[in-house]
Hints:
Layout: H1 2-36, H2 42-56, H3 62-69, H4 80-100, H5 106-121, H6 129-161, H7 167-207, H8 219-235, H9 238-247, H10 253-273, H11 279-293, H12 301-329, H13 333-354, H14 369-374, H15 393-400, H16 415-420, H17 438-444
Helix pairs in contact: 1-2, 1-4, 1-7, 1-8, 1-9, 1-11, 2-7, 2-8, 3-7, 4-5, 4-12, 4-13, 5-12, 6-10, 6-11, 7-8, 7-10, 10-11, 15-17
Amino acid sequence: xxxxxxxxxxxxxxxxxxxxxxxxxxxxxxxxxxxxxxxxxxxxxxxxxxxxxxxxxxxxxxxxxxxxxxxxxxxxxxxxxxxxxxxxxxxxxxxxxxxxxxxxxxxxxxxxxxxxxxxxxxxxxxxxxxxxxxxxxxxxxxxxxxxxxxxxxxxxxxxxxxxxxxxxxxxxxxxxxxxxxxxxxxxxxxxxxxxxxxxxxxxxxxxxxxxxxxxxxxxxxxxxxxxxxxxxxxxxxxxxxxxxxxxxxxxxxxxxxxxxxxxxxxxxxxxxxxxxxxxxxxxxxxxxxxxxxxxxxxxxxxxxxxxxxxxxxxxxxxxxxxxxxxxxxxxxxxxxxxxxxxxxxxxxxxxxxxxxxxxxxxxxxxxxxxxxxxxxxxxxxxxxxxxxxxxxxxxxxxxxxxxxxxxxxxxxxxxxxxxxxxxxxxxxxxxxxxxxxxxxxxxxxxx
Length: 447
């Protein structure tokens, strides 16, 4: 019994470590657009998000029930070692995607870890496949689409309603709206994601005989899970905030407001019915939708493609790592100790690697080098018609002044006006460099 008690304690600590990584991994979901548009200073944004994550943890336990007694059969012989291995798989995948700046799903990392460890240790019979399909896989596919469509509609309606208003005044109003909607997303994130750790700890207590099957999470479990995710949120996952705020599309205050409001509504609705939703999928879909909804905006599909690949790999990758950890942990005390040592070594190596290119609140709004390198450079020559659709702030700046105004003193119907002004405002081959004075100034005005 002493061994079981000690092991459960290890599982609880590991679950709280996962909750901590979940916090800084998913800070971007609530605050990336608010930080990128300057509605809130980075430190103030993550502090507000941390407090609301903590409060959100106390609003519901429906998702925790899905984790503790839904996807895995509690009476199938699951041991604490298996849960420990599942958490290890989720933590390692969270840290790897954080290092890469990819907003992958912490929720799916946890699901994949638990499923992989369970299958390796007990077999597929311990997995409730219908629950996995209905409450994990289907929401994973539907959530970004629903949030994206809602964000497209909300962005277009927002710009239409404000088309005749003063841009400076509306920007102030939308920044205030962004702060409100970001607060709502943070509250929703605490309601949904903190419960996943509650569910894991509750499952460990049930497997160790400390709780009856089907029991709700105790108050101390709710409190500790809320505090762990809040602390992680406060530290800020700056790498992922940079990707969400600058890497997908260039966000203006009305877009940020529309994206966050759509995301919050989707997350809160799913939490109410017990869907173990990925807040990352929802918020990423909403940001893409806001890019599609604003006329002249550009979605960087290369970054979006990397994200989708990361989403597709999350469940199997975390599951494979957890399966290996489960097979080793089941060898006894030395196996559990070996898994713990290997995990600490991997986490330490990832952290040391991250120090080579640090990202924090001082440089979070700078465009990451990989994205900047992918942007098309201004050229004095007309680009070929077959050039792939460019993405980046340069393209947005050029489109903002398209087409250029007619030169003074030249009639709108003049043939010389048409000849002197190419369709895209670009310099034709053989023209002197002075023929396109506006492009360098527009492109250089956005960092």
